[in-house]
Write a structure and sequence with these properties.
The complex is a heterodimer of chains A (327) and B (558). With 327 residues, chain A is mainly α. Chain A has a domain of 185 residues: MetI-like (MetI-like fold, Orthogonal Bundle). In chain A, 75% of the residues lie in helices and 0% in strands. Chain A contains 13 helices and no strands. Chain B is of the alpha+beta class and 558 residues long. Chain B is built from 16 helices and 22 strands. In chain B, β16, α11 and β17 form a beta-alpha-beta unit. In chain B, α7 runs antiparallel to α10 and α8 packs antiparallel against α11. Chain B is globular, with a radius of gyration of 25 Å. Classes of the chains: A mainly alpha (327), B alpha+beta (558). At the A-B interface, α2, α3, α5, α7 and α11 of A face α1, α5 and α12 of B.
């Protein structure tokens, strides 16, 4: 119980620190949203328009920074995230709603697939140490994950979409379609999401395989595994329930962390495949010095990571009794 | 969009590695009859998903509505100042050029069936007066009043002669329906989901990914438009947009494509074309409040130290042509250039001339090969630039090399864009590389005025709308002010020639290259595009409201 309380205390303090940094950081950046707007339009807006925009954005407020901070904390706690400057006058909540499902769907699914597949493959290659799997898989995927994502993404796009024409050149569904719940729409989403998901899985799976394999090898030398073998348990059972269950702990923490980062999307994936997710929105918010949007996205990101880490801690405590004991 | 990080544009390089894919070509059929139909797709990096807001008075979304949905009073062609009556069937300046009277076109209907009237025009301008944040063109800086006269006339009175403001007021201001907009309390921040306009298209569907425009069958220009449907997808970045265009999935492009001949044209040499008309100057700006940049001879010397054709070739791949010291865009505004005067000065890369000028100004060449003044201070200058614009960074490297040959040290400071603009606008630089960032206009007056008129500048540390170099010349200001008071083209040309004279003699800025409107088009299925020989509209999809005029001309080949 006290373990739980300690974890929660830590959670609250970290969250407050994150909120405060989140407020300060954008305001230290040079320039202001209206100037950033000129950058975004590549100089295609006139200074007159910028002046008009500044007034519309309410940039000339005379509140002290401390008042703004209190206002910010209150708004954050009440879920009032303000208006996006980039997508003026759309509320931040609506901007996020537009991108969130696509990011969660694409990056979330890809992360889960990579984790499950990577962990299983890691387990297998440790089980058959020195075998074909072990000799080929980890090195191949480590090399692939060292490729710059941008390069790999472009290459895949060029080969399968532009040259062969098997997959579409970007977007989350057919251009002229609108979101609906038909099978053909689901098919479109899968077809459009395949290449981006594939590249995420291929580039991230190496880490899971390697961590799992290495921990598993240590675990396989443990006495309880020898004991299990001596008892004559089936190899599958030993692999999954004895060695695997104990070896998975480091990977699980890593998985929780990476789930938290799903919110930030995969900026490069979204740029390369012109995918309408949150990662690009975040990048754009930073470029446009869109304080409200930036703050909300970073807040979601930090909260998601914190929650995920908390969940991983609790899960670890459940799986591994040692962590529950007082040191 | 204009220029982009070439690192990001590596798809083109990969395409070269993989070899160009084949593209089908069909025969050119110039005599085809123009019939209604066809689905055209626009390809333009928007950098964001669509928010499906069709408010022409919101500067961040008006690019999707002004033109095809809402129209101006007069269409004023950005490239040649040719004026075509649009929602106004006629207009008349008073003799003192302080009153402008429009005759409002009859028989025009809003897309909801209501008639368009002079009252709508008066209402639109009254709205902008009441809500300055919606007045994107600052029309009310010069307008005194807008009054309806009789049934179909609207008179604008100005507090000064306002001839050049015609472009903004008649050509760049959208007219909205009173019966809908009178209910909007905050017009700039109003989200308009169901736009009602007078334009040739209506918005039929919008998602974050794509906007679909459908032909307005009751459009006031009978028989137009030819196109049935226009799709406008949202592209987050150049690369996917370029791939989409090169794959033939879109027909009308408006962004930078590296190696365009290989990447785009070669895919279908018969049908894939481009044309890049210059629309602004990329300058070297001097902070004229600092020594030695306040010395005319030093500025002239630097102007003779830059090899403009070489900058254009090495820095801009030849896509952006070299600029000239008159500051008048060529070939866009060739008829305004005083060739004889420009030849007298003959600004070109001339090491001996530049060194002579510096010696006359009291500089001597030090042992390091760099000139120094009488106190021994080296002629060493910093130049701010945008790190993300790799073409500009390359251009400044060429300039740096040129200046070194003369004996001037140039130190590039490549900044993140927001930091760069902050320094540029507040005058916190020695030299700066870049354009004036104001909306261009249909004659050299607009850019030159915004670059040089002291009314656009501000004290160092304050944000200047133009004239970032803090250049002050009352004689020059007077020339611009006189231009504002005349509708006589001969007199206007004469005034601009006097401005050119000051540009050549005083060198307040150095135009190095000319920024262009990126424009690619495919004639495979569609014809009627604007071309170099028939520049009926500024050709990029982001030229407002010119894109409407392009979409009125383009038709599907049968």
């Amino acid at each position: 119980m006290s373990y739980l309380v300690r974890r929660l205390e830590f959670f609250v303090i970290t969250l407050w620190a994150a909120l405060t940094i989140n407020f300060i950081l954008p305001r230290i950046m040079p320039g202001n949203p209206a100037q950033a707007m000129i950058v975004r339009f590549h100089g295609r807006v006139s200074p007159e328009a910028v002046k008009a925009i500044e007034v519309a954005f309410g940039l000339h407020s005379h509140e002290s920074i401390f008042q703004q901070y209190l206002e910010y904390l209150r708004n954050t706690l009440t879920g009032n995230f303000g208006t996006s400057v980039t997508f003026f006058p759309v509320p931040v909540g609506d901007v996020i709603k537009q991108g969130l499902p696509w990011t969660l769907g694409l990056v979330g699914m890809a992360t889960i697939i990579a984790f499950v597949l990577g962990t299983l493959l890691g387990m297998l290659s440790a089980w058959r140490r020195g075998g074909f799997f072990d000799a080929v898989l980890p090195p191949v995927f480590i090399v692939i994950s060292a490729f710059p994502y941008f390069w790999l993404g472009l290459l895949v796009l060029l080969a399968f979409a532009l040259t062969l024409g098997w997959f579409p050149l970007g977007f989350a569904y057919d251009l002229t379609d609108s979101i609906n719940l038909s099978w053909s729409f689901v098919g479109q989403v899968i077809w459009h999401g395949f290449l981006p998901a594939l590249t995420i899985v291929v580039t991230s799976i190496g880490g899971w395989i390697l961590t799992m394999r290495n921990t598993m090898i240590t675990t396989l030398a443990e006495d309880y595994v020898k004991m299990a073998r001596a008892k004559g348990l089936s190899p599958i059972r030993i692999m999954l329930m004895y060695a695997g269950r104990n070896a998975i702990l480091p990977n699980l923490t890593g998985f929780a962390m990476s789930l938290g980062f799903v919110i930030s999307g995969a900026i490069l994936v979204e740029i390369v495949f012109n995918y309408p997710g949150l990662g690009f929105t975040l990048l754009q918010a930073v470029h446009s010095e869109d304080y409200a949007l930036m703050q909300t996205l970073f807040l979601m990101l930090t909260s998601a990571v914190l929650v995920a880490v908390l969940a991983a801690d609790l899960l670890t405590a459940l799986l591994d009794p040692r962590t529950r004991e007082q040191g | 969009m204009r220029r982009r990080d070439l690192f990001i544009s590596s798809l083109a390089a990969l395409a070269l590695l993989a070899g160009a894919c084949g593209g089908g070509s069909s025969g050119n059929n110039n005599n085809a009859q123009k019939t209604v139909g066809g689905v055209l797709t626009i390809d333009n990096e928007s950098g964001a998903l669509w928010q499906c807001d069709f408010n022409p008075y919101n500067g961040s979304v008006n690019g999707q509505s002004f033109g095809v949905l809402y129209e101006p009073l007069v269409y004023d062609n950005l490239l040649n100042d040719k004026k075509t009556p649009w929602l106004a069937s006629d207009y008349q300046w008073s003799t003192d050029n302080k009153t402008l009277t429009f005759t409002i076109r009859s028989g025009v209907k809003w897309t909801d069936g209501q008639p368009f009237t002079a009252a709508d025009v008066v209402f639109s301008f009254a709205l902008l007066k009441q809500h300055p944040e919606a007045d994107l063109q600052s029309d009310w800086q010069v307008i005194q009043s807008v009054i309806q006269q009789g049934d179909d006339k609207v008179a604008f009175t100005f507090n000064q002669s306002a001839v050049p403001n015609f472009y903004q007021i008649a050509g760049q201001t959208a007219i909205v329906p009173q019966h809908i907009w009178s209910a909007f309390k905050d017009p700039a921040a109003q989200v308009v989901k169901d736009p009602v306009g007078t334009g040739p298209f209506t918005m039929s569907a919008c998602t974050g990914q794509n906007i679909t425009y459908k032909r307005n069958p009751n459009y006031w220009q009978k028989g137009l438009p030819y196109l049935d449907t226009v799709n406008y997808p949202a592209f987050l970045d150049n690369d996917p947009a370029n791939a989409f265009l090169a794959a033939g999935q879109a027909q009308w492009g408006g962004q930078f494509i590296p190696n365009i001949d290989t990447y785009y044209v070669a895919k279908d040499p018969k049908n894939n074309h481009y044309w890049f008309p210059p629309i602004d100057n990329i300058n070297v700006w001097f902070n004229t409040t600092l020594a030695p940049l306040n010395n005319k001879a030093v500025r002239q010397a630097i102007a003779y130290s830059i090899d403009r054709p070489s900058v254009s070739q090495k820095g801009e791949f030849g896509y952006e042509p070299p600029g000239n010291q008159t500051g008048v865009l060529s070939p866009t505004f060739d008829s305004w250039i005083d060739k004889a005067q420009a030849d007298t000065y003959g600004y070109k890369f001339d090491v001996a001339k530049a060194q002579g000028l510096l010696q006359q100004a009291g500089f001597t060449k030090g042992s390091s090969g760099i000139f120094q003044d009488s106190s021994g201070k080296k002629l060493s200058l910093s130049i701010i630039n945008i790190a993300g614009y790799t073409d500009w960074v390359a251009s400044v490297q060429v300039i740096q090399d040129n200046l070194k040959q003369v004996g001037i040290e140039l130190k590039p400071v490549n900044l993140e864009a927001t930091a760069y603009f902050d320094k540029l606008f507040t005058g916190n630089f020695e030299l700066a590389y870049g354009s004036v960032n104001t909306s261009p206009g249909p004659s050299p007056y607009y850019e030159l005025r915004n670059t040089l008129h002291s009314a656009t500048t501000a004290a160092i540390g304050q944000t200047a709308a133009g004239d970032y170099g803090r250049y002050k010349n009352p004689a020059l200001d007077a020339l611009f002010d006189q231009y504002g008071g005349t509708t006589d083209p001969a007199k206007q040309h004469d005034l601009i020639k006097q401005v050119e004279k000051i540009m050549l003699e005083d060198v307040p800025v150095i135009p190095v290259t000319e920024g262009v409107a990126w424009y690619q088009y495919s004639t495979k299925d569609f014809a009627g595009w604007p071309t170099k020989d028939d520049p009926f509209a500024a050709p990029a999809p982001w030229n407002l409201p010119d894109w409407e005029v392009t979409l009125l001309h383009v038709y599907k080949k049968s």
